[in-house]
Amino acid sequence: MIAMVALSEHGERSRAWLQARLWSDRPAAQGSASLRQELSRLRRGIGSRHLVTVSDRVLLRDVRVDVLDMVEPGSVAASFIAAEVPELLEGLEIRDEEFEDWLRLERSHWSERIEGLASRAEPLVTHADPPAAARVPAAVRGGAHGAILAPRRPTIGIMPCVVRSERRQLTTIGEMICDLAAKMALENGYFAVFDFRDLSGNFSGIPSEAGNPVHGPDLLLSVRLSEIGSMLEIALALRAVGTNRVVWTQSYAAEASEESLLSAGKIPEFVNQAIEASEHWLSRNSEDEKHCAARLTLSAAHRAFCLGNMDLALAQSQLEAAYDLDGSVVQLGWLAFLECVRVGEGHPQHSKSSIERVRMLTAKALQEDRGNSLTLALLGHANAFVLRDYAVAEDLVAESLRINPHRAAGWDARAMLNFYTGDLEDGYLAAQRARALGRFSPYSFWYEASCGIGASMVGRHAEAIRHGSLVLAQRPDFKPMIRHMLASFALQGEMAEAQKLYRHWQVLEEDISIAKLRDAGYPLPNPDSIAMIERGLIKAGVALAPA
Prior knowledge:
Blueprint: H1 2-6, E1 12-14, H2 15-22, H3 28-46, E2 51-54, E3 57-60, H4 97-121, E4 155-158, E5 162-164, H5 169-188, E6 192-195, E7 219-228, E8 231-240, E9 246-255, H6 258-263, H7 266-285, H8 292-304, H9 309-326, H10 329-344, H11 351-368, H12 373-387, H13 390-403, H14 408-421, H15 424-437, H16 444-457, H17 461-474, H18 479-491, H19 495-508, H20 514-518, H21 527-540
Parallel strand pairs: 4-6, 4-7, 5-7
Antiparallel strand pairs: 1-3, 2-3, 7-8, 8-9
């Protein structure tokens, strides 16, 4: 119904029009009652301020429905023109002839919009046309990557650390914070980094690259340490160059001893928060066309965690376009990670190609750069979950954590690999470390889910339910969490909640049965996980085989 209203010319439809296309097979009184019921349910979900009924009209106000982002054909939207664009409202089954007639007409208009977008974006995007299952970035296909001039990324300038203390040792702590911030920003792949600690913040002497002038940074990161008695206040701030506007600032107090500072683990969490803030700034404020690749990559990473098939298709095309522009191995890592989500969420149309793609992307990324901890973590997870090659995954994950032991994605990959290989307790500890490091991340639900899955597998079902509730509040259709949380409910004896979650699972996935879980292709690589979920499902009354 939201789509039908949103696709109208002025964002409104008459009640009679909606009723005629959604309940044409029912008596008028029954159709009218059904319409009222659905409108009431929608208003509860999205708010009466956004879904408005006036007399016989239904209107959408102050809301943007993101079907596919076509606002800027030269940037984000252009990236999907080489990908398979799903049919409008694909997978929606409403058995009403009037609705089907309307949908056929809208789909023809939809195709015209896609074709128009492609023609406008054609000069801006490099793409080829292999089969969709084998489509990879131009440089991965063996194109002339060396001839591509990568555009300048947005940049962060690291300012000299300010230490208000007589103890010189605290200067070392401040420098460690600056070094870690630079490392995290570089490895994430969205920013270049200027280090002004030896230049006293003087931007005038910045050299050029390949004859192209390099301008000053977009953001400045400053670190200040102030000792007050036995306590130390650590403050970080991000400022936008030009306006000097404070984009983000945060501080915390800790015991001033070096031992407590280095052992508490708070510094990496703090730095991660600063880097997440800089990426949030990039997604909301940077309109420089030279930052297109960074924005595409960031948008694709966010879409990957939306879990839907359309989101994954758009994320893939965004990453391919970004790689053709920028050539960063981080984009290859995220492309491999997309295959994990596809397999885990059970998108069967991609299952056959996922194995081949992960192998190819792993080989290409390792050939280009073996020193990026984020890429290694993403590849490690893909090799473990999609390929089930635990030896290769172990090497990748171990190297990721050796390079950067403060990355949430690295500890999450370690946790899942341990779960797959039966090292459950260590896996649960690694998941908790990932959750702590990633608690400010927009993907924090993912790390929370790893804790929930780990807790269920080690038999701490109350903890699993607590973690799972937080996950499903953000992503109610996240199947890996649903499976384990259902088992924990049942094994805790909370049968009403188990049955409720089981009914929700049935809506998302057909023919759930014990036999289906045991199938070699089902996305549950660990036999301990399968056995635990089996016990829960049997207790909840799930059939051993499909009816």
